[in-house]
Every structure is written in C-alpha cells, then in structure tokens.
Amino acid sequence: MTTPPEHLIPAATQDAWRPKYHYSPARNWMNDPNGLVYFDGEYHLYYQYNPKGDDWGHISWGHAVSTDLVSWQELPVAIPATERVMAFSGSVVVDHENRGGFAPAGADTPAMIAFFTGFDPETKIQAQHLAVSLDRGRSYAPYAGNPVLDIGSTEFRDPKVFWHSPTQRWVMLVVVALQQQVWFYTSDNLVDWTRVSTFGPAGSADKNIWEVPELFELAVDGDASHKRWVLVVSVNHGSLWGGSGVQYFIGDFDGTRFVADWNGCEGPDIAQLTLWADHGRDFYAPIMFANTPDRRVLWMGWCSNWEYARQLPTSPWRGQQSAVRELSLTATPKGLRLRQRMAAEMLALIDEAPLFSAGATTASQVAAGLAQARITDRQLMVRLRVPRAGLVAPIGVELFKSGQESVQAGFDPARNSFFIDRRCQVPRFKGQCERHDAQRLSGADEVELEVWVDGSLVEVLADDGTVSLTDLVYADPQVLALGLFHGAEATIQSLRVHDVRIKLSPADVPDEPIDIGFERREAGR
Ligand code: FRU
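ok -> structure tokens follow
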C-alpha cells in the first residue's frame, strides 16, 4: 500500500499529526534549531527555515519566542536569505560587556550577535558571518566586514560561539564536515579569530560528515566540584541506524583544546565507545540555550532525519523541534553518561490528576483497566514503573492503537534494552517501519519508562533520563487508544497516564517575511 500524496491527506489528519506542545512553524520547511538564547525575559528559538515553501531551500533564520520554554510565538524571519548568502546554522551570544563594540555608546541594552554560516549558492563556499541585533533579537543587521572567517571551503560550517570565562576569551567551534573535525578558534573582539586546536576524527566514523558542534560543562551527579566538558557533534549518513544522529564525547576543555577521556582506549576501541545522545531516529543538531538566567544547560533538537526529512507527509509545515530537555552527567555502571530530563517547565504542563492510575498489581489487570479507560488523546505523558526482577518478556505501552496496529514503547528484558517499535502497515515514509533499541545503563531494581506523546512525535526518557529515544510516527488519526502490552504476566509497580495541557496554537504569521532591510542595513563598530 502506498501513502497518498500529502496534499491528499485530509486537513484533520494533518491537524492530528501536528505537535501541540512542541514547536512547529505555522507553515513551511524547518530544520536545525539555531542561536538558542535567553535575553531579557524571553527565550529565543531561531531555526533553519524556508520562508518560501515546505522543502529545504532559501535557508533563513526563522524565529519564535517564549517566556516559559513551552508556548512559542512565531515571529517574522530574523535573518533572511539573500541572493548570495543563505543563513546556515549557528549560535547567538549576548555581548554584555560590549567586547565586540557593536552596541552604540551609551546604549542601555547589550548587542545580541548571531554567528551563522553564510552559504553562497553560486560558489558553494561556506564562511562564518556575524549579524547584530539591537532590538531584542527581532532583526539582525549583517556586519559590514563579513565574512569574519573564511578558509575558502565548501564544507566549513555551524559556528558555536561562547564566552570562556577562565581565559577571558570568546571561543568558536566550527566543523570541517568532510574531514570529521571540529576546529577551535578564539577571539577577544568577536571579529578577529585565531585557530587554536583541532578535534577529530573520532567515534563513529563510517561515511559520516560532521555538523553542528556544541560544547558545555556539566557537573557529575550534581557535584559542583566534579565537572566534565561534553563535546557534541551531529553526524550525518552513518549514525546509529544510518542517516543522521548525535554523538558526544566527555572530556576536558581548557579554553583552547578539548581532550576526550578515552578510558585508555585507542584505535578501533574508540568506535566501540561512541556515545549517542539519543537512540531513536529523529533527534538531530541539538544545541543549548545560551545565557540562561539560572545556568541550567537546556537543549533542543530537530525531530527529523536527513534520510527522509524531505519526504515527511505533513503539510503545510514540515519539521518540528523536540521538547526542551535539561542536561546533566551521571555515573552509570558503564561510565559517565549524559542524562536528559524534561525541563521543569514541561513537567508543569501535565495535569496533576492522572487520566489513569494503577499500581501494585498484575500487568493483565492494568491492561484491562487501561482498555476500559479508552484514552484517545494524542497529547499524553505516560510513566510506567516495573520491578526488573522476574521480568521475562517485553513490556510497555501501546500508542496510537487501532485495530491490529500500534506503536510500542517499552522495555525488553532479554536484550536489556528500551525500545520504540514503530513498525506499521502503512508506512508514511521510507524508514518508518523500524524498531529502535537503546541499552539500559542503570542497574536499578525498578525499570522506569517515561513516554511523551504529541501528535506524531514520541519522546522516551527512561530510567530518569539515562536513556533517550525520539521517533516520529504517523499513525492512523481516526481510531486510536492507549494500551499496555506484556508478553508474559508481570507485576506493575505503577502506571500513570497524564494529559499534557496544550498551550500552543500556531500563531498567525504574515505570508511573506517582513522586509527588515537586511541587505540595506549593515552593522559597523
Ligand atoms: C544540519 C545542517 C547544517 C547546516 C544546515 C543547513 O542539519 O546540514 O550543517 O548548516 O543543516 O540547513
């Protein structure tokens, strides 16, 4: 059976698939989040956006703002593509001390500086540009001296800039994509950059190109005296399940050089040690929010995969971002690992009174109770706790259950893995009919599964965030229900199903981006 072209998919289906508490633009194409930053009471989400259609092209920085990290208001394009410069991925810094000299003398608000890769569609050259906002991130004027960093390469992109306080310098990471390297630069004034080190190739190497580097420091299990740095690199083509994915390295950074903790491994063993931030197919190019008031490390990724992003059956939008997750490091029996928990703002969304609650009883009783409850909502958070001892068969929740079909999110004791199984009768895109597994890292007595469902998006954060799986699912919008599956009788410690209160509605945005005079106005110093 083939999927009808997306314009024949009814609007009601599209509406059922559209995430309601995750961000998607009202219309058009979106990929990576860009320049995530907090400033003056607002979180800014910029993103790779095509203002002219629902396929990749005319790449500009789309824009949305939020005061609570959950309800986003779409705003006009912040950095539009011009004839000779598409605005590829990058980051934003708030220049509090005016070290770049871009804020006019006596200005009472600091400049926000966006760093992005300017891609010239004619020459294909990728070089690093900056643009300046003096209006709380609404519009950016390109720097008159652009590009600020150009090595004449066609594969040099995605600048991540941040202030490194111990060395009192700005640091920039840029990927040299085909060489699988991150190049590190430093600067005193955001304009003149000196190359200081190189990292890579490392980790998963096959056929990959490197994209969207990210770097931050995290405490291990909340211990401020034990911190490590995490270097994140999104890789495309040869990730965990093929296509794109996110790998990370834990190590040290002294303001100049990142050195990974290899635990004594070298050569092929390094590939064995590749750490993946997410084990589903649909989490890519995540970056953190800069300048957060409480110093939390919060990130968000694009929920899609380059292998099929352009074929996804949604309309009039194509692309969605993950929820905001708070990061930390935790010691597991296998070593240090990234822990991702939903941001507190997300947890505040769930209705306290559960739609369904059961506990300390058998799986068959819970399954029967859940079937009777007939939960058909598409915005849900489900938390399941099961004692690990005595588990002999897979157990978990069935989502979007209709007839014989469902998507399963569960735990498989034989493989000691969490999984999302999105195999289906009607594949909506190549790659949908798969199961994705993630090894359990925790040795805790209780297996804990937290599943966030939103229209066509499933995010699993298991065992208190030590395992994360993100997958897109385009299930039958008509009939659906929530169930519990269990291959053998088991004890359920607790199952709670919560409605996730919807705050989002796609904002009204102008059809055409507002002309903010990007080409005419230039920023000087
Ligand atoms: C990652 C990426 C970046 C690039 C952007 C182009 O998904 O390929 O490397 O800057 O998307 O839209």
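The chain is about 5% helix and 45% strand.
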